[in-house]
Amino acid sequence: MPGRNYPARARFPCSFPPIILKPQDYCYTRILLFSGRHVEVCVFLSLRELELRKVEFSVAVPAGLNEFPDQHWRQAGPIEAAGCARLESEALEEIRISGHLHTGMEGDCDRCLEAVGFVVDTDFDVCYRPARFADSGADEKEIEEAESNVAFYEGDGIELNDVLREQVILSLPMQRLCREDCRGICPVCGKNRNVANCGCCSKPADDRWAALKQI
Questions:
Q1: Pick from 38, 123, 207, 214: CA 20 to 30 A from residue 84's CA?
Q2: Model pLDDT for residues 113-153, shown as the tens digit of each residue
């Protein structure tokens, strides 16, 4: 993550004794130096504080702080999100995070390589359980609908930014298209067929495979 980490600042005070308070015991916002200015991002949702109360959040994660598995997608604007986190099950240490996020993404069309803009504007509601529960079901069994929206976390809490990035990735289309009827690039001359008809003739198909089409 670019920028320099500054000491965590507690946004949500808690009742733990100050003399034993540790960063992982409360929810906080990290202050980063980004593009010459200080920004508050990456709220940490602490399991310890969620045992006492639900935590509301409202954040804007600047573009450039996140990396996406598909490098052809880029974050064009801040990820703006608001919602709340609460402990759904104290016995399972299950954290439920719900809210709404909005951001703009940009990429390259899969057919013509022109710029593609995509707006992510979605609600989210997901539950996280400790990673030790991930392998608890040794036998194969049908996953109930309520269980299909459960993810896992490690440590004493969850970085909200990781949750938001995951929700953006899940909202992106499988194929990047500037428009549904994009004609793509001519394989002969390389011109964009959406701009002009180049008149090139495509290479004829190999007739040796024609017999297979009859099967």
A1: 38
A2: 999 999 999 999 999 999 887 765 544 444 454 555 688 88
Distance, in Å, from the CA atom of 72 to the CA atom of 85, rounded to the nearest integer, reads: 31
CA torsion sign, 77 to 42 to 162 to 83? negative
Q: What is the pTM of this model?
A: 0.69
Q: Is 19 exposed, middle or buried (0-12, 13-18, 19+ CB in 10 A)?
A: exposed
The answer to whether the beta carbons of residues 142 and 166 sit under 8 Å apart is: no
Distance CA 196, CA 182 (A): 12
Give Cα separations from 1 to 65, 165, 202, 214 (angstroms).
6, 13, 46, 56
| C-beta separation of 167 from 160 below 8 A | no
Query: In angstroms, rounded to a whole number, what is the distance separating the alpha carbons of residues 144 and 104?
Result: 33
Residue 55: which of 87, 21, 31 has the closest Cα? 87
